[in-house]
């Protein structure tokens, strides 16, 4: 085991030099409270109001992302939820994967998947075109110019 | 490391079961999140690609799975706030059992209207 917990009353200088675990613990609580607001709002607008799940299509997403509020909302949700979930899974891996090699590779896989997903999601939000020129007009939001 | 059965850390009741449920719902939500970000990324491919994939979600089976997903999220959210209160509120540890009851009560209070609303969308067309 590489990450044994030091005995109580171990002098501080003999413990780990960083407070990474403290920051991770704080992050879970701070991001968790924000995510309650962000995700409850997301679920309410996308599933409860209007026609709910039946209204979801490209035009619905494009209409939302025409508003900077929803761009920022979704970007925050993407980053906070991914990091919160990744740190949660890191804890689960540390708890149950007892072999050092297995624990290492599970975390390498986790961090790789997280990085790819966050980068992909961020690029989508920032490079999204609500009115792609070669798309059928009836699939686009109503504010797109008619060809 | 020896694994001799020298008693157990698992003590049951509200403390342990809320922790178990928090883990299980957290892991489930996290795996859904990967799928959800990937399907949403299809808006960057084309409107047709996105609509086609979203259309495969619009059936009663996925509709019921969405109820499960929202149920997991609502539990994880309220129990997460309970954890924050246990950690930061001076009386939090003393009232953790009552707060767990509140988590379950609020869960029912939110889920009943949500399930009625969502399933009427799913089954009502």
Notes on the protein architecture:
The complex is a heterodimer of chains A (147) and B (125). In chain A, helix 1 (20-48) packs across helix 3 (68-96) and helix 3 (68-96) packs antiparallel against helix 4 (100-127). Chain A has a single domain (19-130), classed as 3 helical TM bundles of succinate and fumarate reductases, CATH 1.20.1300.10. Chain A has helices at 20-48, 58-65, 68-96, 100-127. With 147 residues, chain A is mostly helical. The longest helix of chain A has 29 residues, at 20-48. Chain A has four helices and no strands. Chain B has four helices and no strands. Chain B is mostly helical and 125 residues long. Chain B has a single domain (19-124), classed as Fumarate reductase/succinate dehydrogenase, transmembrane subunit (3 helical TM bundles of succinate and fumarate reductases, Up-down Bundle), CATH 1.20.1300. At the A-B interface, helix 1, helix 2, helix 3 and helix 4 of A face helix 1, helix 2, helix 3 and helix 4 of B.
Q: Which residue ranges of chain A are poorly predicted, with pLDDT under 50 across at least 5 consecutive positions?
A: none
Shape of chain B: elongated
CATH topology of chain A: 3 helical TM bundles of succinate and fumarate reductases
Radius of gyration of chain B: 19 Å
Task: Return the structural class of chain B.
Answer: mainly alpha
CATH structural class of chain B = Mainly Alpha
Within CATH, the superfamily of chain B carries the name Fumarate reductase/succinate dehydrogenase, transmembrane subunit
How many strands in all of chain B?
0
Weakly predicted, low-confidence segments of chain B: none
The total of helices of chain B stands at 4
Largest binding interface between chains: A-B, 43 and 39 residues
Major sheet details of chain B: none
Number of helices of chain A: 4
Q: How many domains is the backbone of chain B divided into?
A: 1
Mean of residue pLDDT values of chain A = 91
CATH topology call of chain B: 3 helical TM bundles of succinate and fumarate reductases
Q: Radius of gyration of chain A, Cα only, in angstroms?
A: 21 Å
Domain module count of chain A: 1
Keywords (chain B): Heme, Iron, Membrane, Metal-binding, Transmembrane, Transmembrane helix
Cofactor (chain B): heme
Transmembrane segments (chain B): 20-38, 58-78, 99-116
Binding site for heme (chain B): 76
